[in-house]
Specification:
Shape: globular
Number of strands: 20
Mean pLDDT: 89
Number of helices: 4
Distance between the termini: 70 Å
Strand order of the largest sheet: 2-9-8-4-6
Low-confidence stretches: 24-31
Length: 302
């Protein structure tokens, strides 16, 4: 009998261990919801387009690892387009910056005035060394209202290096017919894409050596070779772009019509490129990263 009691105690202890984290998490969630309800009942709204009460985590996978990375966000005093706080909100803001990086805003304080509605911020993360592919830096932004009530917001950004020296983004808004796919290349060297003379495929040369080549030899090099693939039932490439003319293309048939579904093209060192895509559904917002964790355009590069 005493063995049965002993096992009961062990089982109960195990159940407590298993349920305790769930209970704590739920309690925190419930506490946050109750607090928000109390504050909102007093016409107090302290919110953000990216920071949340439960510290939302963003996964970003398109950093070059060499150039600064910028995150735009806002703090505001509204619940929606109709409900706003009826008093000024004093707040503090700080950034927990990752090792081997420097963040441009820390320990900021300010006021959201009741007739102002929002304050915009651009957080820039500058690397102090070159980060390699797949390395990750983690940056956390904390905001806290100081008066007339206290409320905390936070967001954590996990920024991963995709292809070293290359970054890409999508700039888009709802109810816009198109978006721009922007590529930035901070590489300062070129790679042989074809074997010729004394060069083998993959050989790397600096920009000065590249500029000294003849036009015919330059055609065998590029700083980066980019491939973009996409679903033409959702987005359509603007074929008037110069990039389109110089690219290798793959096609897909949608509703008996042939559309470009992939392009591969070369770009120069230390350059940027903007490519327009038209949206089948203008109501969609394909902004990447931050708003969308995955891009509607698949990006790869060598």
């Amino acid at each position: 009998m005493k063995y049965i009691k002993k096992y009961k105690v062990i089982i109960i202890a195990l159940l407590i261990c298993l349920l305790l984290p769930v209970t704590i998490t739920f309690s925190r969630y419930l506490y946050t919801k109750v607090l928000d309800y109390i504050l909102e009942s007093n016409n107090f709204f302290f919110n953000s387009d990216k920071l949340t009460s439960n510290n939302k985590i963003y996964e970003i996978n398109n950093w070059s690892g060499t150039d600064p990375f910028t995150i735009d966000f806002e703090l505001n005093n509204r619940k929606n387009n109709l409900l706003y706080s009826n008093s000024d909100i004093e707040y503090s803001l700080d950034v927990e910056c990752a090792n081997e990086t420097i963040c441009s805003i820390t320990n900021e304080t300010g006021v959201i005035y009741k007739n102002q509605n929002s304050v915009l911020y651009s957080l820039t993360i500058n690397p102090t060394r070159v980060f390699n592919a797949n390395e990750v830096v983690t940056v956390k932004v904390n905001a806290k209202s100081l008066s007339p009530y206290i409320k905390k917001l936070a967001a954590t950004f996990r920024i991963k290096v995709g292809v070293q020296g290359l970054s890409h983004e999508i700039k888009d808004t709802e109810n816009q017919a198109y978006f721009m796919f922007n590529i930035t290349n901070t590489r300062q060297s070129y790679f042989a894409r074809n074997a010729f003379g004394n060069y083998n495929v993959g050989d790397e040369i600096i920009s000065d050596d590249y500029l000294a080549l003849s036009d015919a030899d330059k055609a065998n090099f590029s700083s980066a070779r980019i491939t973009l693939s996409f679903d033409p039932s959702k987005v359509i490439l603007d074929t008037t772009s110069n990039i389109t003319e110089k690219s290798t293309k793959l096609y897909t048939t949608v509703d008996n019509v042939s559309y470009i579904s992939s392009i591969t093209f070369d770009i120069d060192a230390v350059s940027s490129t903007a490519i327009r895509f038209y949206k089948k559904d203008p109501k969609q917002n394909y902004t990447y990263p931050i708003i969308n964790n995955t891009s509607i355009i698949n990006f790869s590069a060598i």
